[in-house]
Specification:
Blueprint lengths: L2 H27 L10 H24 L2
């Protein structure tokens, strides 16, 4: 019963992190800006760090089952 919210949270974090990482990699590969009006290196770095943190939180949630 109590594992439902943990699975949901882990899935949300994993999907968000994975999607953001794929989107960021695609934008960088095409040499398109990740965020408008910001340094390309800084925006790609921040987006990648946030994506990895979200993936780590998703993995942490799945270890709590």
């Amino acid at each position: 019963m109590e594992s439902g919210p943990v699975i949901f949270a882990g899935l949300v974090f994993a999907l968000f992190g994975g999607g953001l990482l794929v989107w960021t990699a695609t934008r960088v590969h095409r040499r398109e800006p990740v965020a408008h009006g910001v340094s390309p290196v800084a925006s790609a770095t921040v987006a990648s760090v946030v994506a990895v943190i979200a993936l780590a939180l998703g993995a942490w949630c799945f270890t709590r089952l």
